[in-house]
Amino acid sequence: MWATSLRLVNAARLLAAVLCFAPGPLVLAASYKDVLKSPHHYFERTPTDRFTRLKDNLESGRLDLDRSNEKTFVLSLLKALEIPASSQMLVFSTTSLQLSLISPSNPRALYFSDDLYLGYVPGGRIEIVSLDADLGGIFYIFDIPKSASPIRIERSERCLKCHASADTGYVPGLVIKSVLPGPTGGSLDAFRQEKSGHEIPLDQRFGGWYVTGAPDSMKHWGNLIGRLSPQGTSTYRMPPGKQFDFARYPAATSDILPQLLHEHQAGFVNRAVEAIYRTRTYLDSDHGRLTSEHAADLDQQARLITRYLLFAGEAPLPAGGVTGDKSYKTDFLKDRRPNPAGKSLKDFDLRTRLFAHRCSYLIYSPLFQSLPAVIKQGVYRHLGLALSLQRPDKEYAYLPPAEKQTIHSILKATLNDLPPGW
């Protein structure tokens, strides 16, 4: 105890000496991770995301929804938000604000599009994550209305405890947990912590999730319950639909394909939102003119986003590939953007990888299109270099020349803000 006190006294003396002899006041640089403080002011800025723009219509009743029962309400809300019900994923680990309601017999359902994510627990509340161009994830929660009662939507502050943590890079983003739940849903073990994205090996994913449509050759933690004993932890399988009735939910699946794409999207969102917060922090501290150090860091962020868009390090699919739910494929492909040859970034491969042409469709998403100019133009520049056939970059040697050419052709045909001469 005495030695500890002496160390504290010496540390205080050293700090005092530094303050006395410093040429000026000691000022700590703002961090992009301080999302509640200047220059971010997360809760003080007015969001402009898609759900916030619809919120008044939902609360006023101008958005006509089917209130016959919980299921029909969720279905009509998904339709109004343009989120496919076929994207349904079911998670039974207690990794949500509504953890007291979630169990293997009452899993939480998740649905998503490019910019909106909806959570639903039977007997519980609706959760929304909507992506904002300046702020990242905006989190809402509200009760499913009974009869004609009005809807009251609450912007959730508690969500940031997990959704602006180490799992997201400390910015408001998306969290996908993979845990080994016990019989009542509590976690006995956790995997792939503080990581998100398509690089994560499949054998570390889906813990606490029901998974349908996965081939037998695929090793993962989905559909498993754990038990502790003196001999250690044992697991046993929990087939989807055994402890609950799929009829209670909008879809009868928790398909592997939406889960793979959900992981890909989360990885992109967290990287893009971090770049937004870094840019705002640097521009504020540099009074609008980036220092060479900050410009170099933002260029590195653009490079990392480029690598992610081009599926660098993508975890391979299991032997034999995956099939994917037919309904979800149809819904996903509705807005594909083909080039004159009929090829698009949404064309699936599903044999060894997700897509035939490895550049993410999220390049069309509102989040990417609204990135700060320094990041977006940096990504375009790095993309041009990565896809070059004249000066091949070893970093992208995994992309054959023909695939590079196809990706370049698709982007040229479907994006209208590429740099001149790209």
Name the descriptors:
422 residues; alpha+beta; 7-stranded antiparallel beta sheet; two-stranded antiparallel ribbon; disordered N terminus
Structure description:
- This protein is of the alpha+beta class.
- The chain has a domain at 256-414.
- Helix content is 32%, strand content 13%.
- Strand 4 and strand 5 form a beta hairpin.
- It is globular.
- The termini are far apart.
Mean pLDDT, all residues: 91
User: In what order do the strands lie side by side in the largest sheet?
Assistant: 6-5-4-3-2-1-9
Structural Rg = 24 Å
Q: What string, H for helix and E for strand, traces the elements in order?
A: HHHEEEEEEHEEEEEHHHHHH
Instruction: Estimate what percentage of residues fall within beta strands.
Output: 5-15%
Catalogue the unreliable spans: 1-28
In whole angstroms, the N-to-C terminal distance is 66 Å
Major beta sheet summary: 7 strands, antiparallel
Number of helices: 10
Compute the number of strand runs.
11
Helix content: 25-40%
Shape: globular
Structural class: alpha+beta
